[in-house]
Amino acid sequence: MANNKCFSQEISVFHGRTAPEAGSLAGYGAIISALELAVPMPRQLILISEKHKQYTTAEWIVLTPRHKPKEDLYAHIVLALKWEGVNLLFFKKLFEKLTAPTIESWIAAAPQSQYSRRIWFLYEWLMQSQLQLPDLKEGNYVDLINEKLQYVSPTTQTSSRHRIKNNLPGNCDFCPLIHKTTRLENYIDAQLDEKTNAVICGVHKDILLRTSAFLLLKDSKASFTIEGENPSQTRAVRWGRAIGQAGSKPLSKEELLRLQQIIIENSRFIQMGYRTEGGFIGEHDRNTGEPIPDHISARAEDLEKLMGGLTTASRQMEQAGFHPVLTATKIAFGFVFIHPLVDGNGRLHRYLIHHELASMRFTPQGIIFPVSAAILDRIVDYQKVLESYSHPLLDLIEWKKTPKNNVEVLNETIDYYRYFDATTQAEFLFKCVDATIHTIIPQEVAYLQEWESMKSWLDDRFQMPDKMVALLIRFLEQNGGTLSKRAVEKEFPGLSSEEVKEIEGRFSLYFNS
Q1: Reduced 3-state DSSP string for 230-277
Q2: Does residue 227 carry a pLDDT above 70?
Q3: CA within 20 to 30 Å of 257's CA: 27, 107, 159, 428, which one?
Q4: Is the pLDDT reported for residue 4 higher than 70?
């Protein structure tokens, strides 16, 4: 029986993490270890210290001896809910191991306890099965998720049976959760969407339109580069045009497949639409051809349910007014972890960031954040963020090689893709959005303003046609602000040496000011 297990264990190193001091494991980590639940370890673990100092680190929640729970399962769950928040994947895997009468005995022993009621609600919500318990008739309603610990939906659904306010930002088919961190709170408090408006306020409309067009192309090319592709200008412009329409249509299976068709120029050798076989990201052994996965995708038979849950969650969070960047995190990273397509997943994943930010009016109308460019600048961090989810799952997913050197998943894995912790991904995306607002957009606006000033001066001084102006400025940029002898003789033979120096001086004035 689970209650006969010893949960607390003295540790110094646990799953590759060094404890900050002597103490015993408690909460989710202790239960996962004791019951051998097929769940990744939470990003923070509870350590009951021998000292009387309470603090947190990136990987630990250090509590004092007075917080030490009784040596039973229910007490450790209560401690976890109190300090670690709700871990939906943990509860799903736990409930699969326990019998319904065990849960019923906990509720019957303390029916008014907020923790018993949360466990009760979570069991029936996750398992889609009702316990043999009567509805509660009295007691105040309590929030399912503690908003001091995790980000909750601004709108709630009340469950009179449990007297619970369900504030989960999602549904039972797709509901990643995000913990509140100092970094995320600082980003949210900074109101980055308002800073975008401040950056573009006062910029001439023509400059703004050109900036928007340039940012679309920049983002499109960066997104292809991340995938290791060097697209033709036509293909990059075509995808950039699609990005520019982000947020104009509701997210649906049909919309995703339409976008895939734009991404995949030649579909003769690629199965379009949702996968009908397994999928993975990684390499093949050079000698045997066997798969060497870095990431294993959701099973093909789970895709309709997962993607239905994801698109529904997108609409739910948009309508509820969940924070746009957090919404984008959950939807975009949820999509790429599920990996529903044979090809085009990465670019669609980054498109979904644009979709949510535009749908929820976080980006000003007509302006698309070149988030892919910011990601490309942080490509190593991006890879680590993806691996922080994928690598822990590799030990939990059973698979075998198929005759086509693909992977066939042998165990149930759907819950890993709908109940993950998206905190790390949210911090990364906010960092990219912040860089876009404070660095990339201002730089592009400033450049185009300088370009227009230079063009106006050349028009006024030499009456040059636009094509020649563009060529002249490009040569100056490529050669550090000077015109080579070859450029003058071949392209601009009509300029005197004095005029060349005058042009170089004016270029230096505008572009180095």
Answers
A1: CCCHHHHHHHHHHHHCCCCCCCCHHHHHHHHHHHCCCCCCCCCCECCC
A2: yes
A3: 428
A4: no
Whole-number Å distance between alpha carbons of 180 and 118: 20
Are 408 and 166 a contacting pair, CB within 8 Å?
no
How far apart CA 98 and CA 142 sit, in angstroms, is 25
Check pLDDT > 60 for residue 513: no
Q: What percent of the chain has pLDDT over 70?
A: 97
311: pLDDT confidence band, cut at 50, 70 and 90?
A: very high
**10 pairs with which residues across the strands?**
24
The full DSSP string for 12-60 is: EEETTEEEEEEEEEETHHHHHHHHT-S-PPPSSEEEEESSS--EE-SSE
DSSP letter at 463?
-
> Across the strands, what pairs with 55?
62
Spatial neighbors of 206 by CB under 8 A, at least 6 apart, are 452
Query: Is there a contact between 233 and 243 (Cβ–Cβ < 8 Å)?
Result: no
- What sign for the dihedral angle of Cα 313, 171, 346, 270? negative
pLDDT tens digits, one per residue of 249-258: 899 999 999 8
Distance of CA 153 to the CA centre of its chain: 17
How sure is the predictor about 294, in pLDDT bands with cuts at 50, 70 and 90?
very high
pLDDT of residue 47: 95
Give the chain's domains with CATH numbers.
2-98 (no CATH), 182-265+276-436 (1.10.3290.10), 445-511 (no CATH)
Give whole-number Cα distances, 244 to 83, 214, 218, 359, in Å. Answer: 42, 11, 12, 12
Which residue reads 């409930």 in tokens?
95
Tens digits of residue pLDDT in 102-128:
999 999 999 999 999 999 999 999 999
Task: Answer whether residue 281 shows pLDDT above 80.
Answer: yes
Supply 294's token pair: 């870095």
As a residue count, the chain comes to 513
What pTM, to 2 d.p., does this model score? 0.91
Tokens of 305: 């349910």
DSSP string across 378-416 = THHHHHHHHHHHHHHHHTT--EEE-TTS-EEE-S--HHH
Cβ neighbours of residue 141 closer than 8 Å, sequence gap 6 or more:
158, 163, 164, 165
Tell me the HSE value of 173 on the side-chain side, using a 13 A CA sphere: 14
Specify the pairing of strand 55-56 against strand 291-296. unpaired
